[in-house]
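thought: fold this chain, then report.
action: predict
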Amino acid sequence: MELQMGAVESRFADLIWQNEPISSSELARRSEQLLGWKKSTSFTVLRRLCQKGIFQNTDGVVTSLLTRQEFYAMHSQKYVEETFQGSLPAFLAAFTMRKGLTPEEVSQLRRMVAEYEEGK
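observation:
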């Protein structure tokens, strides 16, 4: 499964996730209204996203094979594995080097770690 989407594909994918199940013709209409796309562009991008295993178009009805959260969780995990040898602390250190964390973000991270420890 290919876990890459460009900015244009992401906007289109969000349109599907927000409205699924959606007919491919309705998806094309909404893409034209919201993104300014021609019908052929919508079907081309939809076909690419289906080939990547993110969505499916069955009998003209488009649904997701992965939720938005599942897709981005898998994408993030792959990025950390490939770029930081799977080290989440190394990723966080790199991420926070140029952009500090707000007190709210620190608090949220602490809650996540506590919830993880409780779930073990």
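thought: worth noting. The chain is about 70% helix and 10% strand.
final: tokens above.
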